[in-house]
Structures are given as C-alpha cells and as structure tokens.
Amino acid sequence: MGAASVKSFGYLIDSVRALGTSMRQVFRPVNTVQFPDVIRPRAERYRASFALLHDEEGDELCIGCLQCERICPSQVIAIKAAGKRESPITGKKRGYADDFTLDMSACIFCELCVQVCPTDAIVMTREQDPPAYSREDLVLTMDKLYANEKSKTRSWGDATKLMGMQEAPKAPKAHAPAAVAATVGAAAPAAAESAPATKPSEAAPGSASSDPTRAPEGQVPPAPPAAPDAGAAS
Amino acid sequence: MQVQTITRRVDPHLAIDLYDPEAELLLLHFGPQHPSTHGVFRMDLYLDGEIVVKVVPYVGYLHRAVEKLCEKLTYAQITPVVDKNDYVAPMTNEQAINMAFEALLGIEVPRRARWIRTIFAEMQRIASHLLWLGTFALDMGGALGGGSTVFLHCFRERELILDLFEDVTGARFHYNTHTVGGNRHDIPAGWSAKVKAALDVIASRLPEYASMTLENRIFIERTRGVGILDGELALELGVTGPILRASGVDHDLRRDAPFHAYDEVKVNVVTRSAGDCLARAQVRLGEIEESIRLVRAMIDGIPEGIINAGRPIKQPAQFKIPAGQVYVGIETPRGELGTYVIADGTANAHRLKIRPPSLHALSALPHILPGATVSDAVVILGSLDPIMGEADR
Ligand code: SF4
Ligand code: SF4
Hints:
The structure holds 2 protein chains of 2 kinds.
Chain A: H1 2-24, E1 49-52, H2 67-71, E2 77-86, E3 93-103, H3 112-116, E4 122-125, E5 139-140, H4 142-151, H5 159-166, H6 177-191
Antiparallel strand pairs in A: 1-4, 2-3, 3-5
Helix pairs in contact in A: 5-6
Chain B: E1 26-30, E2 42-48, E3 51-58, H1 66-72, H2 75-82, H3 90-105, H4 111-139, H5 149-169, E4 178-179, E5 182-183, H6 191-212, H7 217-223, H8 231-237, H9 242-246, H10 253-256, H11 277-299, E6 324-332, E7 335-343, E8 349-355, H12 357-362, H13 365-368, H14 374-383, H15 388-392
Antiparallel strand pairs in B: 1-2, 2-3, 4-5, 6-7, 7-8
The structure holds iron/sulfur cluster (2 copies).
C-alpha cells in the first residue's frame, strides 16, 4: 500500500515535469504562420515549378535539342523539335522547339533537366503553380512555361551555374592551392549574384591540404554481419 | 514484464497450429493502415487473451520495383529515384548508391565533397532520429505531457534541419544533391553559421525531450524490458544500426569501415546492453548528441576545393561504368544500407540490389513480439523504426 502510493507519487511528479516542459512553450515565439496571409520566404534555390526563358533580344532560348527530355528520370518532358529555321528576330538560322510539355503530376523535381540544358533555357521557379483541379492543369504547356518566366520568381539555379558549381578545373589536380584559387576564380562570375561556389572564409586555416595516403573513397567494407539477403525471405 | 527466452532453432512461424480449435486464438489484423505502422505494413497477430502468441508480418504494400527501375534507368538518372527509398533520411540513399558507382569507376571523391557528405549524413541522422522520437512518443499514447507534445516538439526541431537542407539544395526531402564523383550543390555563403545556430537550438531542447521520455517514469515503465532482442539473434537476423547497438553489439560502420570523412573524425559509438525498447531510445537520443558534436566539430573545418571529381553528366547514354561488381555498405540512421551493383560496361546496371536496414529490423518481429501484449506490440514495432519505403522498395 505504502509502496504503491510512493510509486503513484512518482508518476505525478514526472507528469508535472512533463507538463512544465509543455507550458514553457507558451512563452516561446510561435513557430507557425497563418499560411495564405503570411508566406514564408522561400530559400534561394527552392525548386517549385518551371519556366522557359527568352534571351535579351526576345528570342526563345530553347533550341529543341532534347537533352532535357533524354535525362528526365520520370520521362515527363515531351518536346517536338522543329529543326532549323530562321529566327524572326535576329534572322540567324537555329533550332526551335515546336511544342514543349512538362507533366508536373509525375515530375520529381530533381533539377536534372535544368542542369543539362545547353542554353540555360529551362529553369525552375521559386513559386508554385496554383492548385490544380484536374490532371490537365498539372501539365505545363509551352505557353504556361513561357508565361511563368514573367509571373514567377526564378530559383537560383540554371545550367551554367549548376555546372560551374561542380566543374573540376582542367589540368592539375585539385588540391594544390593554386588550383583551388583557379576554381574559385572560374566559378565566381557565374555564381556572383548570390552564392559563390567556394568560399575561402569557410575553411579553417591549414585545412586545405589533402592527405595523400588516404585510400580511395568507396572501398568495399568488410562483410556485413549477415548476408544481404538474410531477412528477405521472411 | 515477461522476458522471452528465445531458442534460436524454433521457427516462430510454425510453432503453433493455427487451425487447432482448442487453442482459441484470436486473429487480429494489425495494419496496413494502422497509424503506428509508419507506412503500409501489416502484421497478423494471433492473440491468446491479450497476449500475442504468434506474429506473421507482411511486407510489400509499398513495393515500387525500385531495383528493377534502377536497371532500366541510366546511371545518371538513378540518384533522384533512390531518394524515395528511405524517405526519412533521403541523403543517405543517394550517398550509398553513388559510392557504389564511384567504387566501380575507381573515382576518388574530393575531400571537400567528402566532408560535406559527412555533415549531411550526420544532420540527416539528427533529423531522422528526431522524427523517430516524435512518432514513437505518439505511438505510446497520451500519457507523455499530452499526447502529441513530443511529436510536435521533435517536428519543430526537424524543420530547422530541413530548412538548412533547403538552403543548400532547394528541396526539403528529395534532394538529388549527390552525383557520381561528388556533390551537385556547394554550400552557400553563411550556411555554417546557420547550422551552428540550429544545432544550438536542438542541443538546448534535448533535456526537454528527456524530461518527457527517458527520465519520465511513465515512458520508462512502458519500454523497460519490452521487446528484448538478444544481441546474438540480432546478428543472425542481420539487424544493424541502433537496434543492434542497443542489444550490446558494438558495431558501427562509421568507425569500423570508415567512409566519407569518418576516418578523419572520431565517432563515439553509443551502445546499451539491455536490448529493450528503452535501450533503443537511449541509443538514438545518444546518437543525436553525438551527431551534434560531430557536425559542430566539422563545420568550421570544411576544406577548400572542388566538390565533384568528374564532369557533370550531360548525356546519360554516354556515361558508362566498366564491367564489375561491388558491394558498398554505409551506416544510415537505421543501420547498414548496402548497395550491390553488377555493371556490364553499358550505361545501365545489369543488376542492382539494395539491402535496406528496415527490412532486417522487421524480420526480428516474429522473435520479439510473442509474449507481449497488444499495447506493447505497438511500442515494439515503433522502437524498430522501420521505414516501409525502404523495406519494400
Ligand atoms: S525536374 Fe522533373 S522534368 Fe526535370 S528532369 Fe527531373 S523529373 Fe524530369
Ligand atoms: S530546354 Fe534546353 S535542354 Fe531542353 S530542348 Fe530546350 S534547349 Fe534543349
């Protein structure tokens, strides 16, 4: 009897402690926002929808090269390439896309189509499209994609910037300080407007040297404790 | 609480005659839509009164044929697809698959990319364990400071980490930020400071979680001695990760077979020997602390340099991997995620097999559930932290 009441008293103490933790939240700032009225700022690289761009002269940038259609893992891009014809603006002969559709209902927003485009024609936007009432509304037609260029804030990335971020310098290997400087120099113009590709400030002094004795990444580790298939049969 | 002794030679599936009318067992279908199954998972529980005497788990409700799909897609297209396997820790899926390709190609990943990958992996571990703690507390019902309190607290802190990932990659869950040979996104200016601020917040909230879970008598009594998994049996079943470490087996690939930059930092492996649900919770909360320590130690020392050893892939059909086969296992928040690839020299893998830690964790259920009550069954299932997207793939 006595032991039981001591035990119950312990529960009470811990419950009150837990309740105290909960009550502490009352004095903290609110974490949520009232969504349609307040929209949180989106990250600079946020990937939400797509847009096709024009160049400075107002010509369509897309040349209908089908690179994006080929790399898309979900195969949601369908392009009708027009072949070469004279540009109505500059008069030069170049490729065009007659039709361009992107089916957002199956897109996985992987950004690969943006990364491979040779002319920076397709980019992602930071704003979503409005909610759809039918599946057709989710298909971004060419008109919608070109309209998004005007109506939506662009996300940071385009092919040049994404490639510039990852591109290895040409000749000597990366670790020599000179080569590092070259990388920074090469990537900086592309990335200048927002985030430089590499930042000297982020490295601790002396950490830039590499360890030449290190084994290559991805060596096969020792056998796992059980065969990879051990539990698959159950 | 009844402690199970497990004779390893007894097949838990066949020990009882289900059709014996004398046994008067009640068959309870648990799932696939039960909220505590974390995905679509079904168990058939055979009950004697309130005690579970036999369990038959069924996986496969979320089967998406990912391995077959990976054989059809080119190497360049696989990364964003495997993101969806373990959707609570997507970064680790990408890392595992790309490390396998890198091993086949013999590429050495630049040091900067390795450090960034390590930091991502550790932050992913924090986010994943936070989600686990929240849902685990939710499974246990309303006693802990008001039902979903822990759940919402954990999600609030997890958001901080997702925001940081969003800053780097532009996505919150399915990042596609790794590629063969390195990373696709470099960290933006001022990101390290944001990481440190977020980690400070999370670290300061850890005692609050403890007051509602590990130090709370109600939590302790619901988890101590429940679902005891013997270390030897765990090894036999291929169970890895926090569950194995909670059963007293000191095994962590981050320390035992260092990948990324784990050979340059010291990982303190958290272990417990009890093997019950409480020990699993202690290990995971300990790992959050350890991950915070690791990220704090690394974030200021990210080396300069390039983030990708190769050129980004433009033509998926032209990116080929020479014939060969490789197995690469990495330590994810849930245990050892293995990738086995057989390449045949073309742009597609001949065979690609993913070894998900969750499937092996679930395979322990028939051994640890019998003898527990139905309400404990929920707790035991939650303590295994299964992610069905990766168990079924
Ligand atoms: S972002 Fe969408 S459209 Fe572009 S490649 Fe990925 S899945 Fe295809
Ligand atoms: S959007 Fe770019 S990659 Fe796609 S067809 Fe046009 S130019 Fe080629």
